[in-house]
Amino acid sequence: MNEIVLVEDDPDDIYLFRQACxxxxxxxxxxxxxxxxxxIVEAKISVNPNRIxxxxxxxxxxxxxxxxxxxxxxxxxxNMIVVCYSTSDSPSDIRQAYELGAKSFLRKPSSxxxxxxxxxxxxxxxxxYNKIGSVEV
Length: 137
Known about the structure:
137 residues, alpha/beta, 5 helices, 5 strands
């Protein structure tokens, strides 16, 4: 089953994300992890190819970039679909996120209608059109 895992520490952002998903006709299941450390623990337990992780960059204890670095260093985890989801539009944050294995970098929208549209687009692209898997050479 398709699932979006929102890795976010801000209760307001979590609430808005859930509201936008409720408005989206094709939204997958949503799970919330409130820290990057929770992401690392969950990833070690279960890697699911039908799961997308939306990872906030600015969190206490461990930032999203630190989490990406940790995931990239573990061969079993570096194929996860991790999309950075942040208020940052800093070129250095974006560059570093991609260098650390982020599959995409999305700026948090400023309205619930834009967020709903983003969720629809994410859902269509990653779960309908994108082919996920490893390719042997």
